[in-house]
Amino acid sequence: MSWLLPALVLVPFAGALVLPGLPDRFAVRAGVGVALVTLALAVLATYETGTTGFGRMQLEVRTDWVPALGLQAHLGMDGVSAPLVLLTGLLSVLVCLYLTRVGPDRNLVACVLAVTGGSLATFTALDLLLFFIAFETVLIPMWLVIRIWGDTTQPGGTATRNDAASRFVLYTATGSALMLLGIILVIARTGTSDLTELIERGGAGMSVTTQTVAAGLIVLGLAVKTPMWPLHTWLPPAHTIAPTAGSVLLAGILLKLGTYGLVRVAVPVLPAGLQNVAPWLGGFAVVGIVWAGLACLTERDLKRLVALSSVAHMGFVLLGVASMTPTGLQGALYANIAHGVVSALLFFVVGALKDRHHSADLSVLGPGLRDRLPRLGWLLTLGAVAGLGLPGLAVFWGELLAIAGAWQSSALGALDRPYAVIAAVGTAIAAAYWLRVLRLIWQGTPPADQAGLPDATHHETVVVLPLVVATVVLGLLPGPLLSTTAGVVRLLLPGGGVVP
Amino acid sequence: MLTDITGTLTGVPRIDAVALLPVIAPVVALLLVLLIDAVRPVKPLLNLVTLAGLLTAAGGVAYLALEGTERSTACSIGVVVGTAGLSGPSPLPESLSPSDVGFGCSYLVSDLTLTGQAIVLVAAIGCLLLALDGPGAEDRTAHHTLLLATVAGATALAGARDLATLTVALETATLPAIGLIALRRDAQGAQAAVTLLLTAIASLGLLLLGIGLLFLATGSLYLSRIADVLASDPDEKVLVVAVAGAMFALAGIGFKISLVPFHQWTPDTYAGAPLPVAALLSTVSKAAGLTAAAVLLGIGLPALHDAWAPLIGVLAALTMTAGNLVALRQQVAVRLLAWSTVAQAGWVVLPLAASGTTRDGVREAVAASLGYLLAYVVAGLAVFAVVVLVARHHRAGEEHTLEAYRGLARTEPVASAVLAFALACLAGLPPGVMGLIAKVVALRPVVDAQLWPLAVVAALNVALALAYYLRWTALLLATTDQATPRWRLRPAEGIVLGGAAAGCVGLSIGAGTIAGLLPDLLR
């Protein structure tokens, strides 16, 4: 099955290259086809990996690419990458499907597929430099999505849009350039860029200082993407401006690249270095949780609010990583997937609302929404309730485990329990701001000029349905996903992740 | 036998014509061009001869590379002039090798030589094709002879292994550019030529002073001998003189590569020159300057690394930062290119700042420089090809601003795609993998030597440069209501566009080429 992962990565790229040459109507449908093939390959790859065990690297292929740098085109899949690959495949299908009716454009679909391909390459790359190249590959397509198809009705018009697009790309590029320094340092000191070998060594061959410097640089670069407070300021404008498809990709897939990098590279390759960086990472994470929560309490633009809540959710993921415990890491990976599903759902719904009202302002959308547009109202309610971490829905488990991980963490030192407590307060704030949103959309009388707006079409319902199902299933049955990541997480942590 | 005797008696070195083919071919072509011009100036014939000269030189490089043996030529075989009662010159005693008494070879065919020559020739062929029908080539004879002279100088430079040859070759490579710029025959062209002339004189002065001091300190013009003397723990006074010489020589070369603060001539000259000549300046001249720096520092002065490396580091950081900051504000396409060229020059010399004193470290740093140079030259040619085309079709001509590119993707999708890809390569962002690998290669020695301030400045410059490359790319895709006429692509321009695009894609897929230059000993 060695063809499986290269095919998985190359199919969407091939689609992205071919589609711009086709007529719009046909190209958009072909895009769905390409995305479906990708998803099928992702499912097949996950199945193959699962049958032989998620705890080890499976389906490995490697071939020399740049021998002088030791760079190999080396792909593989295990329990950490499999859920993210599935999520990417699923979201790519849904976004392409969404685009068949709403603003079909062959170039936009091509960009979506390019982002998909780049993300899949990142999630399966087993070479540090290849990981970096794949990580950077998503930048330009995503920049195009914001820059070309972005919303120009915001105050400032095209200038605001261009500014949001540039801010996204420049923040991320600065972060990744610094990360590149860290990566080069690791390669220069160990003489290899092979991730499997680097993970096996677990930092052997590098002094603690080297590891700390490299971990600092790599974490910094990934933290911009994740995003971590206070480096998150590119995210709200990007989400506000991006079209629905862009927002879903950004929240559902791109943010995951950052956290995946932390789990795949920073934790296992530089354990001693990350130990030193962890208290800082955890600190910024909990500040981000509270800060973003407080900002959400007063935010009027619903799209911006969902974006800011992403910063809070990703804060939990970062906290889980910083704890460097199996529980915390499991929580981080779970919260990662859960956030991908829930935020994608929310952005689809908010996008649909915004298309109808030509505004995402809560005072315009809000009053009587559930009465006017019952289906969209319910979907938004589900997303909001999931977002506030209600037990039985997806987000709950990940954040619970992340807090539990922080509580018992040794990497965070004396700060472990304070961080856990602050994060717990953050969940309360999340409840507060989502309940505020719910109050606004459940109560009030709808203004007369907004009678007669259409509710969710069948097409929109079909698009979000898989996400609704995933939200509920991940909430009720956390077992399968947790057992998928359980085996690998122990391998990734120093000393098998035994808590002393 | 006869040649041996003449050699011994007069010290006339033997010449290996095959080894010198990349230098001789352009010179022969130059003479032929002059001859044809005198007899009967037929335009196609002039073009053909020039192109044939360059292709022959390229063929020579390819042959020598395939042959794989190291050739050296123009070697002094070491003649000791009358001492101890002997009258007349006598051969060197066999116990001494020529290099022990200050002699060596002036020209060497090594990996370094061939790589430098290959880059120069690729760039020169591209620039020639761009110029064939372009502005500035009305006076074809003048243009072609000057271009060939530049190329001859640049190829000789790559093989030069003594200070005199190095200086002469460097000046041969850069001085004709003044004439090329003056070919534009308007006030701006004249001003640009004068600017460059003054710069060239100043830099030649510095270079000569530096070389004089180096000769004074070491007693030899041959780089290998200089390296030996400096490596053998010389007197402190010798070191001081040698370091001063290295600094002056470096400043002289800095003008050619337009390192800040020796860069002031660049933007005016680029804007004043015909576009294909600007392309020549930014590729061939830059390659020549970099090769000179690599040969001088990497082969002659590795022992003085501690003196020149910090200087190079500071210059590189200043160059890329200043270049990028000013480029951010440029509106005229060719001026933006000029400043971005300045910034890229910083990247090209960056690895030299961290070469260390070990032979392998020096080799890696020089290889990194050349690798970056190769990526830069290929991407730069692609950008210039599109800019030349836009200049020909836009009413503002060579002065066109970036606005001329608005909506180009709709009318000229292929050229726009090439430009966008080349800009991504220059920025070092996928899909321009070539540029990304080049940046990795350039940063590697710096990170390895833990020069963190330099590394961080370079990393931040990636984002700075990205800002304006993306601004340009965005314009290509912007919507416009202006109907622009479709282009008429001339064959020569098509070849450059296609070739450079193929180079960008090919080197992105086969990025191993960029990273794997100079695998063997640096000689």
TrEMBL record, chain A:
Entry coiled-coil feature ranges: none
Domain NADH:quinone oxidoreductase/Mrp antiporter transmembrane: 125-411
InterPro entries: NADH_Q_OxRdtase_chainM/4, NADH_UbQ_OxRdtase, ND/Mrp_TM
Alphabetic keyword roster: Membrane, Transmembrane, Transmembrane helix
Subcellular location: Endomembrane system; Membrane
TM region(s), chain numbering: 26-47, 80-100, 120-146, 167-188, 208-226, 238-257, 277-298, 305-325, 331-353, 376-398, 418-435
Membrane protein topology class: Multi-pass membrane protein
Family: Belongs to the complex I subunit 4 family.
PANTHER family the record matches: NADH-UBIQUINONE OXIDOREDUCTASE CHAIN 4 (PTHR43507:SF1)
Record protein name field: NADH-quinone oxidoreductase subunit M
Organism: Kineosporia mesophila
TrEMBL record, chain B:
Keywords recorded for this protein, A-Z: Membrane, Transmembrane, Transmembrane helix
Subcellular location: Endomembrane system; Membrane
Record-annotated membrane-spanning stretches: 18-39, 45-66, 112-132, 195-218, 238-257, 277-301, 307-327, 334-353, 373-393, 414-438, 450-470, 495-518
Listed Pfam families: Proton_antipo_M
Main localization of the protein described in the UniProt heading: membrane
Membrane topology designation: Multi-pass membrane protein
Sequence ranges assigned to domain NADH:quinone oxidoreductase/Mrp antiporter transmembrane in this UniProt record: 160-459
Descriptive protein name: NADH-quinone oxidoreductase subunit N
Organism the protein comes from: Kineosporia mesophila
